[in-house]
């Protein structure tokens, strides 16, 4: 093999990193053409490393990679977007951890999924930009589920196909969607889904982000939306996600930091 054949270029988002050897890191990347892949970044834990800043978590970078016998090796790295707002605020960072862990857990190495790469990049941008990061997460979860083959059926009962949008219904993770009250009565493993929350889920599933971002979702509805999707995702993955605990802890601490009697930020009309 010539040197040229041993090198390839790729864009990538750094999903995960682990210390490796004395000063190296093993990086889990998500790329447009190779899907998920793992590469070695040599020497990046040394303070003098010029590559280190370009292979931080959640960074969108352009890499030059050399094919290795067991692991490919990063030879050059250049940041395209470091998503700075995600580094400045712990709440936003915890959401980015979650998004990265979701992509990692729902994908196998070497499976190309261009749409998933694009929505991952968008989600990282929106998480740094939006006042309603929970809405970004719900939008992202629904797209990811769709792109990896687990799109939940939300507008019609999964058994009898009756439309349920305007009625109360039940969400059944095992069947991947909603059951009308007639079909779902007495079924185990179902979760109540109010008409308002079902309508919101359907809207998020079938409209683009520019439309969805205008939705005003109150805390109670957010709580319900998160509960339904978290339960479904946990069911599919067969265990919880590490980043969920981190995200919940940060959120609790932020809620406690808001002094009693004061309106939480973002509720004042402008
Ligand atoms: Zn039914």
What this model shows, in words?
This protein is 41% helix and 21% strand. The chain has helices at 3-6, 84-88, 90-106, 114-129, 133-147, 181-184, 195-206, 209-212, 219-237, 242-257, and strands spanning 7-20, 24-31, 35-41, 60-66, 72-81, 169-172, 177-179, 190-193. The strands form two sheets. Strands 1-2-3-5-4 form a five-stranded mixed beta barrel. A three-stranded antiparallel sheet has the order 7-6-8. It is elongated, with a radius of gyration of 21 Å. The structure holds zinc ion. Zinc ion binds next to α6.
Keywords:
elongated; three-stranded antiparallel sheet; OB fold (Dihydrolipoamide Acetyltransferase, E2P); disordered C terminus; 270 residues; 8 strands; de novo design (two linked rop proteins); alpha+beta; binds zinc ion; five-stranded mixed β-barrel
Please render the helix and strand layout as text.
Blueprint (H helix, E strand, L loop, with lengths): L2 H4 E14 L3 E8 L3 E7 L18 E7 L5 E10 L2 H5 L1 H17 L7 H16 L3 H15 L21 E4 L4 E3 L1 H4 L5 E4 L1 H12 L2 H4 L6 H19 L4 H16 L13
Helix pairs in contact: 3-4, 3-5, 3-10, 4-5, 5-9, 7-9
This protein binds zinc ion.
The site of zinc ion has 8 residues, from helix 6.
């Amino acid at each position: 093999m010539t040197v040229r054949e041993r090198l390839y270029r790729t864009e990538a988002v750094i999903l995960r990193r682990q210390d490796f050897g004395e000063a190296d890191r093993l990086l889990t990347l998500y790329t447009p053409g190779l899907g998920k892949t793992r590469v070695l970044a040599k020497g990046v834990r040394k303070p003098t490393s010029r590559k280190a800043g370009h292979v931080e978590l959640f960074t969108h970078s352009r890499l030059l990679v050399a094919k290795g016998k067991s692991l490919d090796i990063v030879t050059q790295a250049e940041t395209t977007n470091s998503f700075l707002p995600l580094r400045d605020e712990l709440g936003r960072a915890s959401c980015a951890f979650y998004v990265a862990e979701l992509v990692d857990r729902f994908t196998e190495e070497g499976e190309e999924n261009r749409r998933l790469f694009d929505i991952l990049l968008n989600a990282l941008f929106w998480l740094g930009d939006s006042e309603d990061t929970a809405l970004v997460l719900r939008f992202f979860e629904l797209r990811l589920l769709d792109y990896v083959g687990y799109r939940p059926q939300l507008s019609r009962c999964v058994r009898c196909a009756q439309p349920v949008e305007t009625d109360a219904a039940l969400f059944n993770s095992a069947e991947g969607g909603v059951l009308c009250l007639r079909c779902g009565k007495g079924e185990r493993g179902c979760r109540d889904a109010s008409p308002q929350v079902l309508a919101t889920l359907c809207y998020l599933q079938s409209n683009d982000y520019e439309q969805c971002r205008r939705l005003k979702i109150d805390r109670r509805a957010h709580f319900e939306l998160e509960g339904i999707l978290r339960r479904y995702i946990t069911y599919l993955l067969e265990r919880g996600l590490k980043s969920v605990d981190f995200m919940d802890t940060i959120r609790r601490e932020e809620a406690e930091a808001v002094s009693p009697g004061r309106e939480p930020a973002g509720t004042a009309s402008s």
